[in-house]
Amino acid sequence: MMPGIVGVASETGMMKQFPALRRVLEECNDEDFDRFVARGVKAMLRSKGFDSDRFQEAMTMATVETEFRRGWDAVRQQGIERGIERGIGVGQVRILRHLAARKFGRETAEELARLLGRSPDGELISRVSAAIVDCEAADDFLARVRGNR
Question: What's the CA gap between 122 and 69, in Å, rounded?
Fold first, then answer.
C-alpha cells in the first residue's frame, strides 16, 4: 500500500489512495500500526511539499487525511481568491499552474502553462480557475481549459 502512495504526484491521486489505506488500517485494528503508517505518510507528503502546523500534529491516518484535505482546500481557495482580486497577471498564472500541479501533476501544469501563453485573457483565466475546482481528472481539466467541454 505505501509504495503505491509514494509514487502519487498529485492531490487527486492522493485522495484516491486514502480510502484504500484506511480500509487496510481498519482491518488491522492496531492503533500502533495506524500511528506508524501515519508517520510514514506524513513524511512522504512533506517530501512532496504538503505541510502545515495542524498536519504536523496529526497522529492517526484519519487525522492525516483530514488535515491533508483541509490544507488542499485552503490552497485551492487562496489561489482562486488571489486570481479574482488581482486580475490577470504573472502571479495568477503562477498560482493556477501551482494549483494544477498539486491536483493533477507536473506534466499537466506544464501543459497548462503552454496553453496560457504570455497573456491569457480573463475568460481563459476564469475557465482554468473553474476547471481546477470542478475537474477530477487531468484529461477533463485540459479539455475544459482548451474549451472543448
Answer: 29
Put simply, whether the predicted model's pTM sits higher than 0.70 gets the answer no
For residues 37 and 21, is the Cβ–Cβ distance under 8 A? yes
Handedness of CA 86, 94, 73, 139 (dihedral sign): positive
Q: Examine the pLDDT at 103 and tell me if it is beyond 60.
A: yes
Go through 111-146 and write b for each residue having 16 or more CB atoms within 10 A of its CB, e for each that does not: bbeeebeeebeeebbebbbebbeebeebeebbebbe
Rounded CA separation 49/118 (Å): 27
Residue with cell 501551482: 98
pLDDT of res. 29:
92
